[in-house]
Amino acid sequence: MKILVTGCCGYIGGHTCVELLNNGYEVIGLDNFSNSKKDVLDKIKIITGKEIKFYEGNMLNSDILRSIFSENKIDAVIDFAAYKAVGESVKKPVEYYINNVSSVLNLLNIMKEYNVKSLIFSSSATVYGTPEVVPIKETAKTGNTTNPYGTSKLFVEQILKDVYKADNTMNICILRYFNPIGAHESGLIGEDPNGIPANLMPYICKVATGKLECLSVFGNDYDTKDGTGVRDYVHVVDLARGHIKALEKLNKEKEGLFIYNLGTGIGYSVLDLINTFERVNNIKINYKIVDRRPGDIAECYTDTTKAKEELGFTCKYNLDDMVRSAYNYEKKNVK
Ligand code: WQD
């Protein structure tokens, strides 16, 4: 089977390409390197011994997409290509809606031209806004998103529901990621955001390697076990494995619209992550407690029932594996 992976050189895209190639799929990749590096292609080849047929470009470029679909018989698309910095999205809403929403409309239009029905869409737990109940089930209310990044994911989910309503021969799987962290065991690919990291794990890694001085913990007055924010951290390789399960589901069902949360179902606080990182990697992390970050929620972790029962998705890796692999990658790769 030939799978088009948009954003194939990104953090989750790159790890998913490794899993796809290792599971015998052929991968056609598209990336414009807006938040990724071309050398990920070489690293994927080192890890798997296989190559991706790569196209450089943007999903807003219809000519590139038509080249891909006319030159390759695409069986399914996994769409990762999106901007994903929450704070940046507040400052640049138009760029986020063009890049994250218009690009998917363009992709859907050309999939229709070439009669390609299967799509896995990379969504996010942010579509739940401030959850009313934790753990969060897929039936939980979505909306009240607190930033354009999360809203862009909500918009695309609605577009996909409308597309399926108009044509129920479509075969769509929406995957809502919780907090992906960690890196491939080789240490060759991992999370390497441009500039100062907005997310907790890459920030801790930069403090651990001396690139940044001190971690700011955004608030310790939340209604959680130690007052700091609680999140469902999931190993990026488990997340990648979840995409293989989703592909298998689409191959079995042939048509439908399916929505799954991908997480461990375990909530860890910021201090849990710091303490685990220090213990596993035998290093001290310098941090200070500061004010809350606007838009943050107290607690967010998933109910794993539906993904387990319908996808057979379960996580192999624990928090120790996540923090060990993240640090291993940072030490080996990030300058
Ligand atoms: C985690 C916790 C912060 C940084 C976002 C997106 C989500 C996904 C992951 C794309 C919170 C605290 C953080 C720091 C801190 N992105 N924190 N100091 O906000 O849960 O989720 O990124 O898919 O869609 O919404 O992740 O890592 O930014 O924050 O104390 O320097 O760490 O307050 O409690 P978040 P995060």
Key features of this structure:
single chain; alpha/beta; 335 residues; 3-stranded mixed sheet; 41% helix; 7-stranded parallel sheet; binds UDP-4-deoxy-4-formamido-beta-L-arabinopyranose
Task: Write up what this structure looks like.
This protein has 335 residues and is α/β, with parallel strands linked by helices. Helix content is 41%, strand content 18%. It is built from eleven helices and 14 strands. Strands 3-2-1-4-5-6-11 form a seven-stranded parallel sheet, with helices on both faces. The chain is globular. The two termini are 37 Å apart. UDP-4-deoxy-4-formamido-beta-L-arabinopyranose binds next to helix 7 and strand 8.
Short note summarizing the structure:
This protein has 335 residues and is α/β, with parallel strands linked by helices. It has helices at residues 11-22, 39-48, 62-71, 86-91, 93-113, 148-166, 200-208, 236-253, 270-281, 305-311, 319-333; strands spanning 2-6, 26-31, 53-56, 76-79, 118-124, 171-177, 179-181, 215-218, 230-231, 233-235, 256-262, 268-269, 287-290, 299-300. Residues 84, 86, 124, 126, 177, 179, 198-200, 203, 215-218, 229, 231, 270, 293, 296 line the site of UDP-4-deoxy-4-formamido-beta-L-arabinopyranose.
